[in-house]
Each structure stands twice: as C-alpha cells, then as structure tokens.
User: Fold these one by one.
Assistant:
Number 1:
Amino acid sequence: MSSAEKAVYKLLANCSQVTALVAERISPELGEPKSVMPYITYNLISEERDHVLDGVSGMSKARMQLNCWSDSYISTVELKNAVVAEYVKEDNTGGIDCFSGSIDGLIIQCVHVNDIGDIFDYTEGTDKSKRYGKRIDIQLWYNL
C-alpha cells in the first residue's frame, strides 16, 4: 500500500518544471540549512479517514505542507510557482494543483493547493536570512 507522503514525493519528482529547478532535492521533514539550494521539503500535518454509519468509506484526506527553500526570495517564488501550477492531464505537465490519477496504486481523487505563505530561516543574532522559504499547504483526497 502506498502513502500520501510517497505519492506527493513522486508527484513532485515527476513534475519537469519542479525538477528543472531542484533536480532530486526533495525530502521529507527538515532540510539542512547548508543544503544545496533550491530544494523542497514536505511533511504530513494530518490524515483523516472518512467514515460513514457502516464504518470507513474508503476515502482519506491528507493535509500536507510543502516548503520551497532557496537562497534568494525571487528563486523561492519561481520554485513555488512551478509547484502550484495547475496540472494538465492531457499532456502530463504543470504542477500539482488539481492533479488526479494513480501513483503506485494509490488512487488520488484530487490535490488542492489551499494556502501559501512566506517562511524564513534567520542567522542567529542578525536580521539576515540564511534561506528564504514558501510554505504551500495542500489537501490530498485519495482512496484507501
């Protein structure tokens, strides 16, 4: 059985617009501040199984956070734009927003980008940023 985390990784890794900027630098949880930039980190915020009177409906909703990191604000915005671009099913291009399909046996009904915001990592004792970041909150609806 596949997981939401594995599906999001594969979705990002198969997005040519994203990999043109980060290559294979996509990882769970926290990236090291001295990592080669730009890169993407992701983590599961919550996972909710849908229930009906008879038990589990077979659907689940995962809320995840993707973080785009770079050494400049403009580069971070470019990476965020590549990630949140609308997926185009006809030619398998674009970003992750509105993706639906199957990844490693996990049937994804839809990926929705819900919220985007800035995050920063400051050098201790200064107001200088070590790296700039964009947080992307998504919901992933899928069949269990």
Number 2:
Amino acid sequence: MVPTPWQRCVQEAQLPQETAQRLNGLSIKKITVSQADHAWEISFANPFEVTETDRRLAEELLHNVFGKDLKFRLEFEKREKIPDLKGMLQDIDHSALELISVEAEDEICNERYREKIQQAGREPGEAKENRPQIILGKKIAGTPRPLCELQEESANCVVQGRVFKIKDCRKLKAGTMLYDFDITDNTNSIKVKMFIDPERNRKFNPEWLSSGSWYRFKGNVKHDQYTQELTLFPNDIMTVEVTGRIDDALEKRVELHMHTKLSAMDAVSTTEEL
C-alpha cells in the first residue's frame, strides 16, 4: 500500500513507534491558505478522539517539514471519547463480586427465556391456566412423534402423552427427586424416568405430576438396564392441552350397525325384516 504524503512525513520524523502509529491514523482532507494572515488551515480526518498532545505533535511535525515561519491552524473531527476500560476494571471491587456456577447461569438464562416465551405467547383475556406451562427446561418446538414409532433408541425425541400408572415419585438419599411413570398417546405407551436435582432446578415444582394430565416431552429414548425396556429420559417438559373430536355439524348423524342371518356373527333377523 502506497503511503500518503502525511504518512511519509510521519515516517521521516522518526517518532516513537506508538506515537507514529497513532499519527498515521490521521489523514488530510483539505488544505486552505488564508490570505489575511498567511496561515495554513488543514482539516484532518481522525478515526479517534484527538488529544492536545496529538494536536501539538502534528503541529510540530508540520513545522519541521515546512519551516518554523509558517502558521498552521489544525481542525479535527469531533469524536466521542472512548471510555477507559482498563481504569474501569481497576476501580471494580473484585472482592465484592459473586461468581456463579455454570449451572446457575444456565438456570438464569432459561428463566429469562421462559419469561420471554410466556410474554410473547400471552393473548388478551386468555386464562393463565389454559396457557402451556414449562415444567422443566425450555419450550418445546416441533411436532410430537406417535409413540408407536419409537421402536429403538433415539435422541432428542419430541412426544406427548397422558400420564398414567405413577409408580414412583420420591426423594432419594442423595437429594435427587425420582419420577417413574408411564404415558400413552392412544397409539402406544412408554415408561418415563426422571432424576431431578432441586439445587440445580430451583424453579422446578415437585408436585407438578398429575395422573390423567397431558404433557409434552423432549429427551432421549434409551434401553433401561433395570427394567429391560425402552424408557424416555426427558430434558424438557411442558403442559399441553388436548381437545377431543368435536361434532359441529348442524344435522347430527348416527351410524347403525346390525347383523343378519347372512352375517358370520350370530343373528336371528333377516334382511327383509330390517
């Protein structure tokens, strides 16, 4: 890259390296010679805030190149003062800082994420109990898979089902909560196991599980070495509202199914009688 005339002047002045690098950042935009006092008005483009020391060094450099008798008026662009980050860090009382664990930081991020999701999904007049609630982890996106498709181990599966046969819901000696129950989506059933540490999941409600309620799960399907069957180990859980089929037809219809003597089933009626 070919240096500009100003940069060549800085190089020839043999200034200290740090000072030369700073002055090299300047570039001359415009030079005007005043006829009244024979002064050179030089406008600079500066990517940083120019200090009084920078101004003095630039003026001395111009005098050394063009002579002491010339008069210079230097103009620089106005820039916002860059904060002294090093000084700000030195002023911080490090003894008063409280360092949190990675797990606690993740929990704070998840809590903020849950709040944003709940605020974004809130509809005017919508009842709070009707909105999906996050039980564990984050909001689950994606379409749930039918349980009948889970025939082998797989990761990050999204399923939903109705809870039944709650076998175990207790606190272990180590302080971990164990949940052992089954779910069904009316296509198949699968066992669900959870080990929750209350210290790492302080927002977790231990009384969330309810038989007959529908939930959506996201987690890994693995072969449980104790029960010797496929088991879902969820990482994210949220409530889900499942509505049954609604007959909104104005004229209702009823299906009539009957057998006659011609059927393979036992019957005493003939087709003519029907």
Number 3:
Amino acid sequence: MNEPDNPLLRRWVPVALGSNFEALPVVEPGDRAPHYERLWTYSFLGGGAGTLLRSARLKKRVDAWLQERPKVGRVLVESPAGPIVWSIRLAAAQARKPPRVVVVKSVFSALAAEWVAVTFTPRVVWVKRHALDVLASWMRMDFRPVPDPNDPWLQERVLPKIAAPPLEPGASRTKQVAWAIGVQSVALEAAARSCGNWIEVTHEDLLANPVEQSQALFSRAGLEWSDSVDEYLAQSNQPGEGFDLKRVWGDLPGRWRRELSQEQIDDATSVLSAFPVEAIGSLD
C-alpha cells in the first residue's frame, strides 16, 4: 500500500486524524493515538487507494476546514469526523479477503516510526537515500519543510531527545528543507537503534543493480519473489514525476548535482554537516 498516511495523496487522512498535517505526526511508544492507530490498522489490513472525497463541493469544504486547523503534529486527540470516516474505512477493509502479505510504504511517519514498529510489530525496511538527493526532490516538488522548527509539539517532544542543531533565524528555504531532512533522519536513526531489528538498505545500492538487490532484500524480509515483481520493476523503469511510481533508474543517483545550484549545495551542506554523520551519511 503506497503512503496511506500521505495527506497530499489522500485527502481523507487529515479529516480522519483531526489535523491539517502540515507537520509530521509526533507519536511515541506508549502514546494513545486512536485515529492514528486506526489508520495503520486499516493500512496493514490492505486498505485501499480510494478517497471518500469524490465530491468537488465536499472537497472544497474540507480544504477550507483544514486551513483552520493548527499546523502542528498532534494526533493524540479525537477528531469529530474520525469515527464516521474510520467506521466506513475499517468496515470496507475487513470485509475484503485479507491479502497474504501487505507491504506498506510511508514517508510521513518519520517521527512516529518507533510507535508503528512497537504497536504493530511489522518487519521494517528503512531505505536510506543521499540527503542532497532527498533535498533536490523536495525542492523540485515544492514541498513544505516538515517538521516545522517552530512547531511547539516538535520542540517539546522531539528536539530535546535528538542531536538536532538549531536552525538560524531567517534561514533560506534551502536551509529550512535541509534542517527538516536532518531532523527526520536523526529521528529514524534513533528509532532504528531502539528497535534493533530494522533492515537497512540504501537507495543507491538498490539502484546499482535493481533486480539483484531487490531479490536480496526480499530474502532478508522473508518475502517471496515472483514473476509479477520482475514485471513491476520493468514497468517502473520509465520516465515519471511527482507522485508517479515510475522513474528511469539511471537518472536518480546524484541527481542533486544536476538540479541544485552551488549556493543551494553550500546552504544545505552547512546545515546537514551539523547533524550526526551516522544519521545523515556522506554528503559527497
């Protein structure tokens, strides 16, 4: 299931969670986060890629409601719309024949990854990527830098526990995005150390030999390889942008060298180099 918690792909997610999700959810082991738990229950049941918001009029009303929500990562409260959304979603997921294997991809759970791992005990595969390639992707897609350094929830619950340098006042957009990437990376590194059993691979290694490396990853994760996986990989190796799941494999490694200006590289490097190298990796 592709990014069930991504509000840019699924407009029902912030409605169900009671947040506009302009910040990442901050959830720690032991927290009671009922709607967030339902989202992941739904996802691990196999979920679905649809949306409840098919009406343009309803979507407009929901978008207006989202603008009024506080821009913080709280998902520990009940949303008025949540029970309705989740009763429909979970009933539909439970009514379907459960898949034999469910694989869920997320890029919005960096500050809640340990909670997900502890609560649902899935096999976790952490795909690391060169930080400047992540930055180039975010800049290309014009993503907001998340987490927001001014989010009081982040300041209270995350920053005191991780080695995150302060972000200078009036920092450039490039520095803001780089700082956000650094915080996510450090938080994931801490979660991986705490859990101790995550499978770690790099984006670059996977792209060096996609079929061979993917087969090795399947073996480590206890997944069964099939002809359909070969077909999927072959179909994915073609031009694509945005949220499309297709990319030309050879174009991806080192794309930052072609897309970022020297000023952007210098700004990003000055921020990222202040984070622990074991979380950020090499910036060469």
